[in-house]
UniProtKB/TrEMBL annotation:
Residues annotated as transmembrane: 12-30, 102-123, 135-157, 292-315
InterPro entries xrefs: T2SS_GspF_dom
Subcellular location(s) per record: Cell membrane
Protein topology in the membrane: Multi-pass membrane protein
Source taxon at top rank: Bacteria
Main localisation: membrane
Name the UniProt record assigns to this protein: Fimbrial protein
Pfam family, one: T2SSF
Cellular component annotations (GO), alphabetically ordered: plasma membrane
Residues of the Type II secretion system protein GspF domain: 176-301
Keywords carried by this UniProt record: Cell membrane, Membrane, Transmembrane, Transmembrane helix
Length: 317
């Protein structure tokens, strides 16, 4: 028992030393502006905490509080460079997180999951048969758990991006048809995009959200081309880039938008049908292994079972 307590304390000390070394090695000098901003955020956090204690803690407020704590943790431990932050910000935008502190929240969440798995490795490490008594093995296990915990949120983010892009791809032809109806009715592109966003809110919230942001950028900024390019960069799909290129060229050269949108809608529906036909063609190949493992043995038992039973009875006589 004393052996396990001593090893656990040693592993915890190693984890704390590792985290402290990362903080000291990557910590940047804090200027007076940053100190003022931190104090302002701390005062705002205290005010928000007092308001929550008076009004009662609700699930949404709890979620915001956790995000705030993760953001503070990510801002205090800047362990990635500027290029990695830009790339992570692009991935977060494609996943639907456009908050200005989304990168800090993601970094804090990665540190939290890494530390949680490292603590789990510390608790489980001494109980591993034969290898748990070696400090080097426990240290490697803790380091691997820490790194794995920091990588897992990236896979979750990639899964969310892929799922969101699939939803947008499936609903894009319907959005193009609605946009064609709006342009035929005499509405401008800004009004049409906003109307399509309102109509799609119950069917495809991700695409409706992106169209709503694009319509707001068109109305506020006035630069339609830049707003459309931002839409393509936020979604990151080839079909959306084709739509944006078509709309920009139509505005630059004065060509009718309706005909181009009809061609794009037909192209997207044809691409979806081809994808479905490809999946259907692959279904027979994918069903071969399950049939060999589960269906074929059952059919063999049903077909040959009575004959085998008769042979067994015959040889026993």
């Amino acid at each position: 028992m004393n052996f396990l307590v001593t090893d656990t304390a040693r592993d915890l000390a190693l984890l704390l030393m590792l985290i402290a070394g990362m903080v000291l090695a990557l910590k940047r000098p804090v200027g007076w502006r940053r100190r003022i901003a931190q104090r302002a955020r701390y005062a705002a956090a205290r005010g928000a905490a007092a308001h929550r204690s008076e009004a009662g803690l609700q699930p949404r407020q709890l979620k915001q509080g956790l995000a705030h704590r993760f953001a503070m943790l990510g801002e205090r431990v800047p362990f990635i460079n500027a290029m990695q932050r830009i790339k992570l910000a692009e991935q977060l935008v494609r996943a639907g997180f456009r908050d200005r502190r989304a990168v800090s929240v993601m970094i804090g969440f990665k540190l939290f999951t890494g530390g949680l798995l490292a603590l789990a490795a510390i608790a489980v490490g001494p109980h591993v048969p034969r290898l748990g008594e070696y400090f080097v093995f426990r240290a490697l296990m803790m380091g691997g758990a820490l790194i794995s915990g920091m990588i897992v949120p990236e896979y979750l983010l990639g899964y969310r991006i892929e799922r969101r892009q699939k939803m947008i791809t499936s609903c894009l032809p319907d959005a193009l048809d609605l946009l064609i109806i709006c342009t035929n009715a005499g509405n401008s592109l800004v009004v049409g995009v906003g109307r399509v966003a309102r109509e799609l809110r119950a069917i495809c919230p991700p695409l409706a959200d992106e169209f709503s942001v694009t319509a707001d950028e068109m109305q506020v900024g006035g630069d339609t081309s830049a707003a459309l390019r931002n839409l393509a960069n936020r979604i990151g799909l080839t079909s959306v880039r084709s739509l944006v290129s078509t709309l920009i060229q139509s505005q630059q050269y004065g060509t009718p938008i309706t005909q181009s949108l009809r061609v794009l809608s037909r192209t997207e529906r044809s691409a979806q049908m081809m994808a479905l036909e490809e999946k259907a063609a692959k279904l027979a190949t994918k069903m071969t292994l399950p049939m060999m493992l589960f269906i074929l043995p059952t059919v063999g038992l049903i077909a040959a079972g009575p004959a085998i039973i008769r042979l067994v009875v015959l040889f026993r006589q």
